[in-house]
Amino acid sequence: MEKVFDSKTLTSILSESSLKDYSNIRIGGKAKYLFIAKRVSDLSLIITQANKANLKILPVGGASNILFGNVGDRVLILDRDIPQNIAFKRDEIVVSSNYNINAFIDEMMKHDLGGLEFLSGIPAHIGGAVHMNAGAFGKSISSYLEWIEIISIKGKREIIQKEELHFDYRKTSINGFIINAAFKLESKPEKDILTEVQNIISTRKVRHPYDYPSLGSTFKNPAGYFAGKLIEECELKGTRIGDAEVSKKHANFIINRGNAVFDDMIKLIELIKKEVFEKKGIMLELEIKVIN
Ligand SMILES: Cc1cc2nc3c(=O)[nH]c(=O)nc-3n(C[C@H](O)[C@H](O)[C@H](O)COP(=O)(O)OP(=O)(O)OC[C@H]3O[C@@H](n4cnc5c(N)ncnc54)[C@H](O)[C@@H]3O)c2cc1C
């Protein structure tokens, strides 16, 4: 283990594996510091030690929205092996940030609690979804959020009420590692929730390319437009650089046809931005997080 981190105080693993193994789009190389966190208490230690060494941290959930390039000295911390839990506190449900969003929706359904069905089918963890203010079909996760518990970038455990945070289109002011999130959900019969979940998943399967790895929507929708439609109108569907391809099903999705690498993705992203700007006069903004 590198000197920056004191191995005696940590049960978490400093992994040698490639980020490709964790990335939803199957792209990425080795990181200098890739932690597979095992305990919340370890998170504080890792973050404090990283902070002391002036290293930035990057929380990683489902890695369904991150394109990994050369991550340099960043301290990447995967949440997947931290114990998961759900607790009912009065009318709030407190869930650990590493819960898969679909598993959470399914679990809540059993208690006749719904609302988050619009997120069904996305390969996100709760923490990533909250950090990104994930949304679909005109709704976003922040509408159901009450508060979050984070490990701050100084390594301190803090509760932050929703009112103290800023939520925008796929953007929040959250700084730190979310460890828990509290939601107020809607009372709904289980069968209604199930029907809605099934409908959402069917709609997604029709509209989105689920047969290849991707990061979902590459670009944000510019005000008054759909990024996918703009890209399609520029006749870019099916455009391919290396194994990165503009999906023929949904032009705002870039898929990995097999062995796409970071540079293929970046070149394709730049090509799309250039074409859309030249033909439509609109500069697309990335929705995905590029870490390079
Ligand atoms: C097929 C497909 C469909 C998709 N559909 C949608 C959709 O309908 N709507 C939508 O909004 N998105 C969609 N996405 C994109 C993606 O799933 C969402 O952005 C999701 O919220 C990311 O969650 P994650 O856990 O994978 O986060 P990651 O990709 O792991 O991280 C995303 C960002 O959140 C940060 N982060 C992650 N965990 C934490 C944490 N615990 N604390 C603090 N910060 C954290 C990361 O540092 C990073 O900046 C889709 C993706 C795919 C592949």
How would the blueprint of this fold be written?
Elements (H helix, E strand, L loop, with lengths): L12 E2 L18 E4 L3 H13 L4 E4 L5 E3 L6 E4 L7 E4 L2 E5 L4 H9 L3 E2 L11 H7 L2 E2 L2 E2 L4 E7 L5 E5 L5 E2 L2 E2 L4 E7 L2 E2 L2 H18 L6 E4 L9 H7 L6 E2 L2 E3 L6 E4 L5 H19 L8 E3 L1
Parallel strand pairs: 2-5, 3-5, 4-21
Antiparallel strand pairs: 1-2, 6-7, 7-15, 8-16, 9-10, 11-12, 11-15, 13-14, 17-20, 18-19, 19-20
The protein binds flavin-adenine dinucleotide (FAD).
Indicate the CATH class of the largest domain.
Alpha Beta
What fraction of the residues are assigned to beta strands by DSSP? 25-35%
Radius of gyration: 19 Å
Give average pLDDT, whole number. 95
Overall number of strands? 21
> Which of globular, elongated, flat, extended, rod-shaped describes the shape?
globular
Strand order of the largest sheet: 6-7-15-11-12
Total helices: the number is 6
Secondary-structure element pattern, one letter each: EEHEEEEEHEHEEEEEEEEHEHEEEHE
Characterize the biggest β-sheet: 5 strands, antiparallel
The end-to-end distance, rounded to whole angstroms, is 23 Å
Cofactors and ligands: flavin-adenine dinucleotide
CATH architecture of the largest domain: 2-Layer Sandwich
Low-confidence stretches: none
Q: What proportion of the residues is helical, as a percent range?
A: 25-40%
CATH fold field value of the largest domain: Uridine Diphospho-n-acetylenolpyruvylglucosamine Reductase, domain 3
Number of domains: 3
SS content category: alpha+beta
